[in-house]
Design brief:
Blueprint (H helix, E strand, L loop, with lengths): L7 H20 L19 H8 L2 H16 L5 H23 L1 H10 L7 H5 L19 H12 L1 H8 L1 H14 L9 H11 L13 H18 L2 H9 L1 H21 L7 H26 L5 H28 L6 H24 L22 H7 L1
């Protein structure tokens, strides 16, 4: 049964953001940045749109995850929430590191010229415990799951405080302040502080222990999701400001592009650049949320199907891209044709694996964060008649 509080726009945005991630990771094999496998000929025109997407796609997912965390707590206590986070995040991470991620590392090693007698000869090295890139133990793109699990546990004291009477009062005051006027845009400032103070010293590594700029940046968006989830006033304000948020986002993007196109002498000073990036990130998140709330708060068969399948799809997608891409990049086709072929093939194979090997089988579903399927009980017609 559908609950009246279901935010279908957030379901749509989650699905669309991860599908956009499919395009992004396919592009990583063809743009000018370093990655696990690379096509010999590069599509450098991909750099700019991918750089733009990179600024807000993962923060948006962390924000939506924060909102989902608040919604999840409506039907369970904190202990139940922690248990659910272990089931939903920790077990798929362990399974992913043991089964899903190794083929990525294997293909990368082969691509770089390392030889193994067989996949199994490589696979045993995964359990040597030497972390990537020196070794073959890694969580690769599942860093998102790692960080989300840690953020959830770190937030338990905050969530407990929000349930106390004094915590509810403080939360309501903060929500009322954020929902007034243009105060939503003041949240750019703490983002800029994180960027300016941490980013020069802690470049993004996704390794949890030496990734303080990225860790703090994403945690801020997760906590913003917690904060605004239960406030209809803030959601309405996000929706009403969607056009202004788009203007702010386009303006910050344009100013950043001036440096790229015109070559500002010496570039922008890092505090200015980091502040512009923070403005771009937050304004585009508000833009996407605002337009999503206005146009996407509806359900259909696609979103019902995709809402369950998008998490397994996320777990699978990069492995499928790299394994298929390992062969595609050696084809004698132009880079644009190979990009399109890899995008279509990896999407189709990821969906096929989910549909055939995951969705229908209760023994594998928990490995991808899904609950077992509930079998519908068929009541015989005679029994229905006797009950009537």
């Amino acid at each position: 049964m559908e609950t009246t509080n279901r935010r279908h726009d957030l379901d749509w945005l989650r699905v669309l953001a991860i599908l956009l991630l499919q395009v992004f990771h396919t592009g990583m094999a063809f743009n000018s940045w370093g990655w696990h496998i690379k096509n010999p000929e590069r599509l450098t025109w991909l750099d700019m749109p991918m750089s733009f997407m990179h600024q807000w796609r993962m923060p948006l997912l962390f924000f939506i995850s924060g909102v989902g965390t608040t919604f999840a707590l409506r039907s369970r206590g904190l202990a139940g929430f922690v248990k659910e986070r272990h089931r939903r995040l920790l077990w798929p991470l362990v399974f992913g590191m043991a089964v899903v991620i190794p083929p990525q590392v294997y293909c990368e090693r082969l691509f770089s010229g390392v030889s193994y007698s067989s996949y199994w000869d490589f696979y045993r090295t995964v359990f040597y415990g030497v972390s990537y890139p020196q070794g073959n133990t890694s969580w690769h793109h599942l860093w998102f799951v790692v960080y989300l699990f840690v953020f959830s546990l770190l937030s338990v004291p905050l969530l407990a405080g929000m349930r106390r009477p004094d915590g509810k009062v403080m939360l309501e005051r903060l929500q009322n302040w954020i929902g007034r006027g243009y105060n939503l845009y003041f949240l750019i400032l703490p983002l800029a502080v994180v960027q300016v103070s941490l980013r020069p010293y802690w470049p993004t590594q996704h390794n949890l222990v030496a990734d303080w700029a990225n860790f703090s940046f994403q945690l801020f968006h997760f906590w913003c999701g917690l904060l605004v989830a239960s406030s209809p006033g803030i959601w309405d304000r996000i929706e009403s400001l969607r056009r202004l948020s788009l203007v702010v986002g386009l303006t910050s993007l344009g100013v950043l592009l001036i440096d790229d196109f015109l070559g500002v002498k010496g570039g922008y000073p890092s505090p200015i650049e980091y502040t512009l990036v923070s403005a771009l990130t937050w304004s585009w998140i508000l833009t996407v949320l605002g337009y999503g709330k206005h146009y996407l708060n509806f359900r259909n068969r696609f979103i019902e199907y995709a809402n369950e399948g998008i998490y397994p799809f996320y777990i699978l997608h990069q492995t499928v891209i790299i394994v298929i891409g390992y062969y595609v990049v050696s084809w004698s086709l132009g880079p644009s044709a190979k990009f399109l072929a890899l995008l279509v093939a990896s999407f189709a194979v990821s969906v096929l694996i989910y549909e055939v090997l995951i969705r229908r089988w209760n023994w594998i579903r928990p490995c991808f964060g899904l609950k077992p399927r509930v079998k519908l009980q068929v009541v015989p017609v005679a029994a229905q008649a006797s009950e009537a």
